[in-house]
Amino acid sequence: MGDSSQSPLSSTEVAYQWILKFAAITGKVAERIQQDIWVEALSDIPAHRLNAACKRLMESWRLPNLPLPGDVRAQLEGADDKAFKLTAEAEWQKLLSWIRDNYFLDIGIRCGAPRLSPAVEHAARAAGGYHFLERCSEEELVWARKTFLATYKNVHETGQVEHLLGNGEAKKILGRLTAGPKPQIKPLPPVKAESSESGIPREEVSAVLHAVAEAPAPVAELPTEEEWQARKDRLKKSALDWAASHGIAVSPSEQSELINR
Length: 261
Hints:
Elements: H1 11-26, H2 32-42, H3 47-60, H4 69-102, E1 103-104, E2 108-109, H5 118-126, H6 129-135, H7 138-157, H8 167-179, H9 202-214, H10 225-245, H11 252-259
Antiparallel strand pairs: 1-2
Helix pairs in contact: 1-2, 1-3, 3-4, 4-7, 5-7, 8-10
């Protein structure tokens, strides 16, 4: 008894089937070279997606000529664009819900709030930031939504999403910038004792080693208090300017804590 089950078609087989179907409905002859070019241009698409795209294209095809591979790919791009728009809209709604539950005008983001993705944080800052979105009018929220969706789409299309920093990572960098450099104490080079075989009396070598051992430890040249404070102030200002240039919201309480360090 033979096996009645059929293995799924490959992308190449699906492409060949559909070019012949389009030839049948348009009354055009699909030469072998045309079939091969059509298949080569579409064989990288997964079979199930290629089949669905060709089916959608046939349902709306009205021209008397055979469709080009680009016509098929346009169906896929349209489907992908719709799917992405739905995803972006879902992220916008999640953002509004997150702000209602985790952002407060007096304290900012509550302790223990779940993290947003860097792409959502970036798009939220472009739309005005958490503070603005929490208190803006319905009319302003309409424009903020448009900005959020456009920014969210842009960071994905341009590949920026892979290089974005979330607020958590950015504030860690901000903290390192304001901490200032740690003073480094350079160790003294080791003193090698000369043996009596070198011609130097052993007593003289022992006396030198004893003097070195009894000498006070060298003190690193540290800046004065005024120089250190001026350096910290410059670093804090640079850190705040860096945060502002990258669109990172630093709450008044965080600024006060940073200044009073």
